[in-house]
Write a structure and sequence with these properties.
The protein is mainly alpha-helical. The chain is built from 36 helices and six strands. It has a three-stranded antiparallel sheet. It has a three-stranded antiparallel sheet with strand order 5-4-6. GO terms for molecular function: monoatomic ion channel activity.
């Protein structure tokens, strides 16, 4: 029975966290699987991934040089950890599944190639022969292919699925660029025109194609047009036509194609996740079910043990609340339909709260409950109190923008500081202090820290100005900037803005996924750039006027725009500098100057490196990011509570232990805390309230839910509760074409 419970709990846990790892069901494999999913193991593997990626900071070309022996030992340790994690994974999954999984093959091949590269590079270094560490570009494979990184893999799948459709648009776009290049060669090649630098204008087809590609990004506009425009204003029509077709039409088509494919494949992924979750819950139900009368159910005792096994730290009141929702009729068992909701119930954050009495109410009850004291408390709790201080913050922002040397402005800062201190003291008088500084009370902590820092810095500024080595004005400037950040509180207090801010908070975790994607792409391009360009461009102090300093340490850059603009610090001489250059390329402003400079110090073919980066990052990844932002806002604006959340809220209100989220903002401030275990007892409301001993519950705010969870919620609402879904093999082979009609008409297209 214990083994069945562990197996069922593993299925429920997988459904809760959307894991899709096929594992063996033997007792030993189940225990190994629990250990595999333990948070300490996941933290350890991410630690070794971070160490492995950061080795590029210490290897030649290095920001912080270390001996090759030290970095190679660290890399071997990381590879050992990766191999151990892979062996652990092999112990919990069936052998056929393990060897068919391309992720595992990729990890093993990368480990083998890295070891071979280490041996070859170390052997050549021993005889003073410099070689290339080509395996460093493969290090992001470990970040992508471990099961913990499924979000990053999903983003890469979105890119891979988008490539076939975007390829045809890209080829048509390149055909257009080449057509205009040929036209430019015929129009301007024989005119004898010259650029500002005195070079021939549009006489080489490859140079023309590159300049026109750059023009699509507007980085060289209008410079590239000026020689022809100065010669004859009619030639401006050529460039205007080119920009309209390639910059505005083709770039918009790229976004449309990327968004359409991203949305299509995202819905397919979400559909697959939803059915896999339903499949896991069905497996758990089939393990624990018993027949009562004519239907199969899970007994209450086993349901309790299951929930405890999946979430060991769940409090007894929270568990009782979930049981009341799952067993509405108090029959002593949970039916199939309610059991399938268990993963969703555990995923919804129900906050257990305890309303505390204010310390002053305990120490001086007569004074604290006096009419004057109650009047102050009502004033502080009133919405107008918040509005008044919002206006004060706005006025303070205006005063900060004025001249601080004016004595009136200086004294006004003391007035505003006093008002802010009074606000905090009044709130601490009205609200219970531990509740005011609760875990979720971000703005209270933010305001208090800003005001305390401003008070300390202002006092320090007026008392120790005579200290020669202490620049108090710099500290004060930082505090003033932080004080301006209080304007964010004004924005959040406006309902229309709050939805946008909530959406930004929702997309935060998924933005981190895109951050991982960008890190992978940047890392690969940075390693390639360091191997190709390191040492070709050197940075000198701006005060240096030697010939080498004027050409960034390379004579090939003499009289180039790269050297004239003093771009010497934009180099690939270490990992940090490489990342900064890649960030500048992502912004695309002046990227052709960077590309031209590195082409001069190596070969004109080096421009392909910069064009490839632009295509991958700016055209593909940035457009996918825009598609995600669009989808996130559409979801946020159309979101409603799920059926499971509604059921929880209804039960909380039936039991008379509910506090609405709106009451939390300006009224009762309660501390989110773990409470003593204690179940519900009694039938009427008074007995329930006495049994709860001051406990209250509420659903956590929408801002704590990710966009992926919201999208999955929307799709699951379309699945009938009794629908068990298709077989597992069919789920794993879902295709986006199954969702959309083969011959669309107006209705099904809409």
């Amino acid at each position: 029975e214990d083994q069945d419970l562990l197996l069922a709990a593993a299925y429920v846990s997988d459904a809760q966290y959307n894991r899709n790892v096929p594992f063996e069901t033997s007792p030993r494999a189940i225990r190994l699987y629990y250990f595999y999913n333990h948070w300490t193991m996941q933290v350890a593997i991410y630690f070794f991934i971070c160490v492995d990626l950061s080795l590029a900071l210490f290897e030649e070309p290095a920001l912080f040089p270390l001996p090759f022996l030290a970095t190679s030992i660290a890399e071997v340790l990381c590879l050992t950890a990766f191999f151990g994690r892979l062996v652990h994974f092999a112990k919990v999954t069936p052998q056929m599944v393990f060897w068919k999984d391309t992720k595992n093959i990729c990890i093993m091949v990368t480990i083998a190639l890295t070891l071979i590269d280490l041996i070859i590079y170390g052997s050549l270094e021993a005889v003073n022969i410099h070689s290339v560490r080509w395996s460093r570009a493969l290090r992001p494979v470990f970040l992508i292919n471990f099961p913990e990184s499924r979000q990053i893999r999903r983003t890469f799948r979105s890119i891979r699925n988008t490539l076939p459709d975007i390829l045809y648009v890209f080829l048509l776009f390149m055909f257009s660029v080449l057509m205009f290049s040929l036209m430019a060669l015929k129009l301007f090649g024989d005119r004898g025109l010259r650029t500002v630098e005195g070079l021939p204008y549009f006489t080489n087809i490859l140079e023309i194609a590159f300049e026109l590609y750059v023009l699509v990004t507007t980085a060289n506009s209008p410079d590239v047009m000026m020689p022809a425009y100065n010669f004859n204003w009619w030639y401006s029509l050529y460039f205007i036509t080119y920009i309209i077709i390639n910059t505005y039409i083709f770039m918009s088509v790229f976004l449309a194609v990327v968004y359409n494919n991203y949305r299509k494949h995202l819905k397919n992924e979400i559909r697959k996740l939803a059915y896999l979750k339903r499949h896991k819950m069905m497996e758990a139900f089939n393990i624990l079910k018993v027949k009562v009368g004519t239907e199969f159910v899970v007994m209450e005792a086993r349901w309790r043990r299951l929930a405890r096994t999946v979430m060991p730290h769940i409090s007894s009141p929270h568990l009782e609340l979930l049981l009341r929702i799952s067993d509405e009729g108090q029959k002593g068992h949970v039916d199939k339909m309610n059991f399938l909701r268990l993963a969703d119930l555990l995923n919804i954050q129900v906050i257990t709260m305890n309303i505390k009495r204010h310390p002053l109410e305990e120490w001086m009850p007569r004074v604290y409950q006096s009419s004057a004291s109650l009047l102050v408390q009502r004033m502080v709790r009133h919405r107008i109190f918040v509005w008044v201080y919002d206006i004060i913050i706005l006025i303070n922002a205006i005063f900060i923008a004025l001249d601080e040397k004016n004595p009136f402005i200086s004294y006004a800062e003391w007035l505003f500081l006093s008002l802010y201190i009074i606000e905090i003291l009044l709130k601490l008088y009205t609200y219970e202090p531990r509740a005011y500084f609760g875990k979720k009370q971000f703005w209270n902590w933010f305001d208090t820290l800003i005001i305390v820092a401003a008070l300390v810095a202002t006092v320090a500024n007026t008392t120790i100005q005579s200290a020669s080595k202490y620049n108090s004005q710099q500290v004060l400037d930082i505090v003033l900037i932080l004080r301006i950040l209080r304007l964010l509180r004004v924005i959040v207090s406006i309902q229309r803005f709050r939805l946008i801010v909530t959406t930004l908070i929702n997309i935060g975790p998924t933005i981190l996924t895109f951050g991982g994607l960008i890190l992978v792409v940047y890392y690969v391009f940075a390693i390639i750039g360091m191997e190709a360009f390191h040492g070709k461009v050197r940075f000198f102090d701006p005060n240096f006027t030697t010939p080498d300093a004027l050409v960034c340490g390379n004579p090939a850059l003499k009289d180039s725009a790269f050297a004239r603009d003093r771009y010497c610090k934009n180099n690939f001489n270490d990992l940090a500098s490489s990342f900064i250059v890649l960030m500048e390329l992502t912004v695309v402003n002046q990227w052709h100057i960077l590309a031209g400079g590195f082409a001069l110090v190596t070969h004109q073919a080096a421009k392909l490196y910069f064009i490839s980066f632009h295509v991958v990052v700016v055209i593909l990844i940035v457009n996918i990011f825009i598609a995600f932002i669009l989808e996130a806002f559409f979801v946020a604006y159309s979101l409603e509570k799920s059926e499971v959340e509604t059921a929880i809220e209804r039960k909380i209100q039936e039991l008379g232990v509910g506090i609405q989220e709106e009451e939390m903002h300006d009224g009762k401030l309660v501390d989110n805390m773990d409470v003593k275990d204690g179940g519900f007892s009694g039938d009427d409301g008074d007995n329930k309230r006495k049994a709860l001993k001051g406990l209250y519950f509420r659903i956590a705010s929408k801002k704590y839910r990710t966009v992926d969870a919201l999208l999955q919620q929307m799709f699951e609402s379309e699945i009938a509760p009794e629908d068990e879904g298709p077989p597992l093999d069919e789920i794993l082979n879902f295709s986006p074409s199954d969702i959309y009609p083969k011959v669309p008409n107006f209705e099904n297209s809409a």
